[in-house]
Amino acid sequence: MKGCMFLEQLTFSIIGCQHMHISIFIEEMLSLGHKCAGIYEKENMELLHSMAEKYELNIVEDIDLLLVSKVDIVGCASINNEKVDVIELCEQHGKHIMVDKPIVTNRKDFVRVKNVIDRGNIQVSMLLTERFRPSLDTLKQKLEQGDIGKIVSIEMRKPHRLKASERPKWHFSKEQGGGIVIDLFVHDFDLLKWLTGEDVKNISGYVSKNILPEYPRFYDVSSLQIVTDNGIICNLYADWYTPNESWTWGDCRLFVVGTKGTFELRLTGDPLISKDELLIRVTDEEAISLIKYNDIPQTITADFINRIQGKNSLVNHEDILSATKATLDADDQAHYINNLKSVDNGKDALMNE
């Protein structure tokens, strides 16, 4: 791999601070003993100052100062369709980069990112954090051990809280944000391949719009049906309707059905039982039980540093490209239903974007 050699302590910088997700990278880098050269953001001043204060980071107005020779890695949570520009900028300066999801919002920019990866001058990663949840790591091990027999179906439900008044305008732009499929399903497509070891063979589904007529291309509900290479049937669901008074930002759940039993994973717990992740199993031989999950030996950021240093890593370039391409394919193949249009003029609401 091309690139510079690292000392034990690394220096990182942040270019783009449009989403709280970048705090994951910042916290993990700092906890590993690395230091930050500064943080840059040109628009979201409120979040910029909040992050800088929380983590005691220097706010930098000249982006070039965050690409100097002493900087080893850049973290990026820019507006979704601007991340590719930062990736190419990092390549020009020989800086490895970790970005928040999604990495791109369209096929043209996907090709640009793939070209950077193919040239091999820098390492690129994305915050595919779901793989690093203890409960999901345990689930994967149990599936590999054949606890519930052969997998026949997987369902993932990922509702989200919107709070539209607190979102930046770009979030509601299909061009800038990517839309519900590209934005929210990238984790799920990554998990499907990781848990099953199979690629996606076929995708179909629907996306609907029910609110916010002032944002014509913002859709709020999606349901996808996927078939893997060896015939596992999968259902992915996401929406922006988690109630404001919910105990969690989203009651996310994952169901796996096998020939000998089932797993249910409640990723944000259950308010009547526990707010911790709950992994539940029932089989032909064993009654329903809670499964104790494993500790994760490292974070996604430590995993990325391993890759940079030529060591084994859990997430690689192929994983990032595969999950991203699947979301782009799903978005292209989904049928879009504008229920507001149906109410307004009585016409058929089913349409393709």
Could you walk me through the main structural features you see in this protein, from its secondary elements to its overall organization?
With 353 residues, this protein is an alpha/beta fold. The chain has two domains: 11-127, Rossmann fold, CATH 3.40.50; 133-293 and 331-338, Dihydrodipicolinate Reductase, domain 2. The chain has eleven helices and 15 strands. The protein starts with 10 loop residues before the first strand and ends with a strand.
Largest sheet: 10 strands, mixed
| Helical coverage, percent range | 25-40%
Trace the largest sheet across and list its strands. Answer: 13-12-11-10-6-9-8-7-14-15
- Look at the structure and give the CATH class of the largest domain: Alpha Beta
Overall geometric form: globular
Give Rg in angstroms. Answer: 21 Å
Average residue-wise pLDDT? 93
Order of helices and strands: EHEHEHEHEHEHHHEEEEEEEHHEHE
In terms of DSSP E residues, the strand content is: 15-25%
End-to-end distance:
40 Å
Number of helices: 11
Question: What is the fold-level CATH name, i.e. the topology of the largest domain?
Answer: Dihydrodipicolinate Reductase, domain 2
CATH superfamily of the largest domain: Dihydrodipicolinate Reductase, domain 2
